[in-house]
Amino acid sequence: xxxxxxxxxxxxxxxxxxxxxxxxxxxxxxxxxxxxxxxxxxxxxxxxxxxxxxxxxxxxxxxxxxxxxxxxxxxxxxxxxxxxxxxxxxxxxxxxxxxxxxxxxxxxxxxxxxxxxxxxxxxxxxxxxxxxxxxxxxxxxxxxxxxxxxxxxxxxxxxxxxxxxxxxxxxxxxxxxxxxxxxxxxxxxxxxxxxxxxxxxxxxxxxxxxxxxxxxxxxxxxxxxxxxxxxxxxxxxxxxxxxxxxxxxxxxxxxxxxxxxxxxxxxxxxxxxxxxxxxxxxxxxxxxxxxxxxxxxxxxxxxxxxxxxxxxxxxxxxxxxxxxxxxxxxxxxxxxxxxxxxxxxxxxxxxxxxxxxxxxxxxxxxxxxxxxxxxxxxxxxxxxxxxxxxxxxxxxxxxxxxxxxxxxxxxxxxxxxxxxxxxxxxxxxxxxxxxxxxxxxxxxxxxxxxxxxxxxxxxxxxxxxxxxxxxxxxxxxxxxxxxxxxxxxxxxxxxxxxxxxxxxxxxxxxxxxxxxxxxxxxxxxxxxxxxxxxxxxxxxxxxxxxxxxxxxxxxxxxxxxxxxxxxxxxxxxxxxxxxxxxxxxxxxxxxxxxxxxxxxxxxxxxxxxxxxxxxxxxxxxxxxxxxxxxxxxxxxxxxxxxxxxxxxxxxxxxxxxxxxxxxxxxxxxxxxxxxxxxx
Length: 679
Prior knowledge:
Layout (H helix, E strand, L loop, with lengths): L1 E2 L13 H8 L13 H36 L2 E3 L18 E8 L7 E2 L2 E2 H14 L6 E7 L3 E7 L2 H10 L9 H13 L6 E7 L25 E4 L7 E12 L2 E11 L8 E6 L2 E6 L1 E2 L5 E6 L7 E6 L10 E7 L7 E6 L10 H10 L1 H4 L3 E6 L11 E7 L5 H12 L3 E5 L11 H5 L3 E12 L22 E9 L5 E8 L5 E10 L2 E6 L16 H12 L6 E2 L1 E3 L4 E4 L6 E6 L5 E6 L3 E4 L6 E7 L2 E8 L18 E2 L5 H9 L2 E2 L1 H22 L1
Parallel strand pairs: 3-6, 3-8, 8-9, 9-35, 18-19, 18-20, 20-21, 21-26, 28-34
Antiparallel strand pairs: 1-2, 2-36, 4-5, 6-7, 10-11, 11-15, 12-13, 12-16, 14-15, 16-17, 17-27, 22-23, 22-24, 24-25, 25-26, 29-32, 30-31, 30-33, 33-34
């Protein structure tokens, strides 16, 4: 039984008011004088017992009459239909119905149930309920997941059934608050003469109540006269791929695929298969110190790999077993570096070229790079395609050699130019002049290195284990740097805290340029003699070759992906979804945003001569994969075996208010006649 108007239940204590008054002001028995005849005492006692019983019965009848009135005004409805000629007492039997159908299309509704998906089972039950409605009834269909959409009222219930059954699966989370508030909003505009109900074709997922208030009565537009009826599915075992991460370890790029399980499904020991256009592999999930489980894959040296990882163990919800990945990662096309030094003295201990040679002679320092050394005076033609970058000690560089280096950079090579401050004024710097740098003044004071700028491209470098203040220089040069395409990536500091440019970073043509404003030779700088020099030069070489730490290019389902282009002009970007649809967005200043991420998978894009991919996955934190139902949902639960009959019983229950009014009248009549007899 339920009450359509619980407000009147607050007056329930009124039914006990007569009883309370009787205890406060009890009826005192009539006392005879002591001198009365003894024979009258027995008659008095018998009479007193009769009067007391009658008054007790009158008090009980008064309480029951008030209780009947309170119950009648509360509009109680029994969840049962009366058959045959008694069906006229069915609640709202003479009133048309306005029904809001809330169809859940969240990720958990893809789980298998009774030989099909939960979504298909619920849609079939909803179609059966719609077919059982009358000709004066109407319905509005609302599809919901983390958002609620739709809601057009129509008397064409067959059309609503077709749209319900043909609705496609979804991959987002569940938000019952938005769905219920949408239903109350739609029903608020219908006539009070109509009966109102909302049918939730959902699995009652526990995570869907995260945004719900403490009570359903706190929802916006809540109406107690609206009947809520819904479904509920039993919990099942399920495992899922929770997400991916990428990291570098021992010179290798590794992909970590997280996994989880609920309902007794283990997250460890599960086989995970990796599929990509140029490679494949299999690994098993293992426990991690931070909790959870993950399978780890070593990625081959390919540019911008993308693909998917999928659990090899089938379960009730296969849609959460796969996770997609796309990495921004560039391998080295040319691993050799050409070092151009001024004279043989630079190769002697203490010279800048000497320290660079020591760097390349140690495997830990050079890593994937190797180097050739040459006096700059021997440069007769530009560096060949076997070189990815050059290191130039600018000083005795001719204009022709500077032009050769400039042509190499414009063609896509990288250049690390050391200003070569070695005397009071320093020699002419032709290579820097070809790039537009003009020397302003020499700075002669003690300086030390600061942290790299946050937007310089060096922010991913980890120098946490080094004290940069111990790496200092005694001379630097201040440049009038080109205003376009170059910015300060690193600064020197003096003891007072003043800043001076230490490293410029910029683009020239298709190539990258780094300009060091000091020397690498002793005694003008001790940077090359410090432990921080090896990681510093390594990150500079990676920057010159366009090699950044691998990062994931991804967006959460329904979110916005922000992509970057090398081309800084305003260009049109064509984005192709996993379903094959193509849309266009405009890139401004080298960035574009794409928000049509309504399906998980790999999205590809092209913009002029550039192309790339990014991955879209459901949010692993939304709890959809646990398939855990809410134990006490705020709606009447319909039986899965007979949902149509259960819905009719929930919506068209028996209104017993009229019976309670009749009983209250009978109680008042009984109290009246008993009171008359006592007079």
